[in-house]
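A reminder before we start the practical. When you read a complex entry, don't treat the lines as separate problems. The point of joint prediction is that each chain is placed relative to the others, so the output describes one connected object in space. Small molecules and nucleic acid strands, if listed, are placed in the same frame. In the example below there are two entries. Take a minute to note the order of the lines before looking further.
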Amino acid sequence: MVEDITTLVTALGFPSYEIFLAVMILAIIVIGAIVVITIIRPVLGFFPYTYPNARVRARTGRLFNEKEFSEIVESQNVEEVKNYLRGVPDYAKYIDTYPLEKALDSQLAETYDLIARITPDDSKDSFKFLLKKWDIKNIKSIIIAKEAGLSHEQTVDLIVPFGELSNKLDSLIDTDSVEEVLNALEGTEYPKVMEDAIPVYKETGLLLPLEASMDKYLLENLLKTSATPEDENTTLLHNYIGTMVDVANIKIILRAKADNIKYEDIEPYMVSDGYEIREWKLKELMEAEDVSGVISGLEGTDYAPMLSDAMSEFTQTGSMATFEKLLDGYVVKTAKSISLKNQFGIVPMIAFLSRKETEVKNLKIIARGKREAGFSSSMIKEMLV
Amino acid sequence: MVEIVLGTALAAIGAGLAVGLAGLGSGIGQGIAAAGSVGAVAEDPDMFARGIIFTALPETQAIYGFLIAILLLVFSGIMNPSLTLNVSQGIIAVGAGAAIGFAGLGSGMGQGITASSSVGAVVEEPDMFARGIIFTALSETQAIYGFLIAILLMVFAKILGG
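Here is the predicted structure of the whole assembly.
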C-alpha cells in the first residue's frame, strides 16, 4: 500500500510522499478556510438580529388578532374598551395613568424606544431617528394647545412622555404662546428645521407650515439614514420608509389638487427627492388639472390601480379619507410583503412596527367610535385599517 | 519524548479537524439559538425551559466531533502508545475527521438558525413548539451522515477494532 502511494506520488512529480502529504494538508487547510469563511459570512450578517427579532416576535404574538378586535369593537362604551386593555399587560400600565389616547400613544412610543435600543448598529441610526417622531408629535400638540388656549392639564394630556425632548417638555408646556414655545426650543434642532416656516406663521398665523416642516424633516432624514450602509437589511428598511415618503407626497398632492392649491405653495412641505416618485414626477403630478389627472399621472406605479378604483367614491363623497385609507393600507401591505422576503434580518422588526402602528390606530378608531354617538359596531369595523 | 509515527500524526490532524470544525459549527449554531432564546425569555420568562431545549440541540454536533476525536486519539496511538497507524490509515483518519468536522460545521450552524427561528415562532405562537422541534431536528441528519461515515472509515481502515 505504502509502495502504491509512493509510486503515485512520484508519478505526480513530488520528490517524496512527506512533501505530498504536506501539500495535501495545506490544501485541506485552504479549502477548509474558504468553506468556513463562505459559510460564516452570511450568518454574521443576521446574527446581531437574532436577539431583537426574538423579542419582537414575542410582542408580535401579543398583538390583537381579528377575534380580539371583534370583541373590543363589541364593547358597549369606552370604559369597556379600557377594561379590556387593562387585561393586556402591554397596555395595562398606561391605561390607569393616562387618558386612553395618550395611553395608546405611550405604549406605541415605548415600543419604538425598545426597538431603537435593541436594534443592531447598522440600522440603529434609522430607528433612533424614528424616535424624533414623538418629539415632533409633542411639539405639534403643544403649539396646537397654545393656539387653542388649552389649560396646562389639557396640554399635558396630549403629551407622550417619550422622545429626546422628554426632559424639556415641562418648560415647553409652561409657555404661554406659540412664539414662546418656539423660543423655548432654542438649543434643539427644531428652530432651524422651522426657520422658513416661522416667518410664514408670524405673517399668517397658520400652524400648518410649522407642522409640515417638522414632518418633512422627519421623513427626509429617515430616508437618508436608511440609505446607508447599503446591505440587504438597510435596503429593505429604505424600501419601507421610501413607501411612507411616497405615500405622504401623494396625499399632499391629492389634497392640494382637491383644494386648488398651487405647486409653489405646497412644495416646501413635500419630500422633494421622493423615493420611487421622484421630483420631476411630483412636479408633473402637480401640473395635472384635477385629482383624476393626478391618478392618471401615477399610471405605471402600484398606486394607480387602487386610487382609480376609489375615484368613483371620491366623486360621490368628495372625501379624501377614501384615498388616505387606501394609501395607509398600502404602507401596511408593503411592510407585509417585505416581511415575506427574509425572516432573519431587519424584516420582523419592520413588520412588527407596522402592525403595532395599525393596532394602535385601530384602537384609537374604536375609542373615538365608542365615545361619539351614532357609531354602531359594524360602522366602526368598516373604519378599521 | 515518545516518537510519533507519521500515520499517528495524521490521525491527530483528523482528530483536530473533527472536534475543531464540528465545535465551530456547533458553537456558532448554539450562539445563534441562545441569542434568540435570551430575547424570548426577556419578553416571556416562561420561555426559559423551551429556550434551553432549542439552545441545547446544536450541541450534538460538537459531541459527535468530540467522540470521533477521542476514538482517533485512543486508537491511533496518541493516548495508547502500544498502537500505531501506518500512513494509509493516517490519511483515512484525516478523512474521518474531515467527514464529521465539515458535516458538523454545516449541520450545527443550520440547526442553530432553525432553532433560533423556532424560538421566535414558539414565543409568538406557543403551539409551534412540537413543529419547531421537528424542523430543528431535521438539520441533525447531516451530522449523523458525517458521524456514520467517519465510523465506517475507521472500521474498514482497521483503525477501530483492527
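Discuss with your neighbour: Chain B has a mean pLDDT of 92. What might explain this?
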